[in-house]
Amino acid sequence: MKTIQSLLSPKLLTYPLDKIAEPEDILFVDIETTGFTARSSSLYMIGCIFFEHGQIHLIQWFAQSPAEERNILLAFLQKCRSHQVLVHYNGNNFDIPYLRQKCLQYKLKEPFSDMEGIDIYKRIMPYKKMLGLENVKQKTVEAYLGITREDTYNGGELIRIYKDYTLSLSEQSEKLLLLHNADDMRGMLQLLPILTYADMFLQPFKVVKVLANKYTDTDGNEQTEVLMKLRFPVPFPKEIVLSGRGCRFSASEDEGYLKVPIYYETMKYFYSNYKDYYYLPAEDTAIHKSVASFVDKDYRTQATAKTCYTKKEGAFLPQWDLIFTPVFKRDYEDKICFFLLTEEIKRSPSQFYKYALHILDMLAHGALAEK
After folding, report:
1. Is CATH 3.40.50.2300 what the domain over 2-199 is classified as, yes or no?
2. Which of 51, 143, 268, 324 could form a disulfide with 309, with the two C-beta atoms 3.0–4.6 Å apart?
3. Over the stretch 41-96, which tens digit does the pLDDT of each residue have?
4. Could you report the per-residue pLDDT of 32-52, keeping only the tens digit for each?
C-alpha cells in the first residue's frame, strides 16, 4: 500500500466551508474501484481532503495490488474517527454503499451511520434544469463553472489501466491513476460554489429595496411591476437569469433583482361554503343567506361553487401556492391566484422576503414556464 500526501492551494476553495460544517470536522472522500459491485470488484484507491492548522491536506491510499484492499480501507476508517462530516459527490448512490459492503466483507465496523453525510450531487440535482445542465456528473458541473483538469480519463477507462498496473507496476500508470483521483478531489473543492444556487432556499437572503417600477410593454401599454433588490450571503459563481409568467430574476455576484407584474384589476374572492349563499345575478355577487331575506326570490338563486364570490378592486400580485390570504382569482377554474397588495405588506420586508422566496422557488423548478 502506498500513502501519498500533499498540500492543496487555498485558492481552490472559494466557498465558505463553515456553511457546511466546521472545516476541521469535514472529510471529503472519493473512491476508485474496478467495478460497480463491491462483491465482484476491487477497491484500489481512497482519496480524502481534510483541513488542519489552516491548511488543506490531500491524502490518497493506493492499493498496489488487490491484496492491499483491506489495508487502504483500514487507513480510511481510522481517518474517519477524527471527523464528523463526510462530504462526497454522488456518494449516496455509489461510494458509501460500496464502502459499507467492503466493511461487511472484512467484518469491520462501518463509521458512516455515526457521521453526517453531505452529497453535493444530491444538493444540486433539483437545480439541474434551472442551470441548463445536460446532467449533473462532476465533470459536467466543473465544465459549467470553467474548472479545468489535467486528467482526461473516466473511471471505466482506468479499470484497464489499474489491471495493467498490477502486472507491471508501471510508474506512468500509477501517475495516471493518482492524477484522476486527485483531480476528482480538487474538483470537488472547486465546484462547491455551485451550492450557492441551492443556498438561495437554505440560507436567508435580504430584501434590501422594494419599489414599483413602471415600463412600456411591446404593445405600447404602460405596465407596473414590483422590483425587489436582493442581497445574498455568498456570491454566485456565474450570472443567472430565470423568467416565466411575467416574472424575471437575474443575479450576479451577491446581488439579484426580482421583477413581478402588478395587476390592477377587479378580482373575485370565492367562498368555500357556497350552500350557505345566494347568488344575485343583477349584482354579480353572492351574499350569505342570513342577510338575504330582504332580496326578492326572483332576484336571487342558490349559489354554486362558481358563483359564490364577492369582488374586490385593487392592486394584486400573483401566487402559485397559498402564501398570502385572502386568495383572489379571475375565475373559479383558474390555477393562478392572487393576493391584494396592501399597505401592510408594502411596509413589511419580511413579507416581501417570503414572497420573493416563493417566486424564486417557482422559477427555479420551472413551475412558471409558459405552457
Report:
1. no
2. 268
3. 999 999 999 999 999 999 999 999 999 999 999 999 999 999 999 999 999 999 99
4. 999 999 999 999 999 999 999
Please give, one letter per residue, the 3-state secondary structure of the chain: CEEEEEEECHHHCCCCHHHCCCHHHEEEEEEEECCCCHHHCCEEEEEEEEEECCEEEEEEEECCCHHHHHHHHHHHHHHHCCCCEEEECCCCCCHHHHHHHHHHHCCCCCCHHHCEEEEHHHHHHHHHHHHCCCCCCHHHHHHHCCCCCCCCCCHHHHHHHHHHHHHHCCHHHHHHHHHHHHHHHHHHHHCHHHHHHHHHHHCCCEEEEEEEEEEECCCCCEEEEEEEEEECCCCCCCCEEEEECCEEEEEECCEEEEEEECEEEEEEEECCCHHHEEEECCCCEEEEHHHCCCCCHHHCEECCCCCCEEEEEEEEEEECCCCCCCCEECCCCCCCEEEECCHHHHCCHHHHHHHHHHHHHHHHCCCCCCC
User: pTM of the predicted model, to two decimals?
Assistant: 0.88
Query: Domain map of the chain by residue range?
Result: 2-199, 263-340
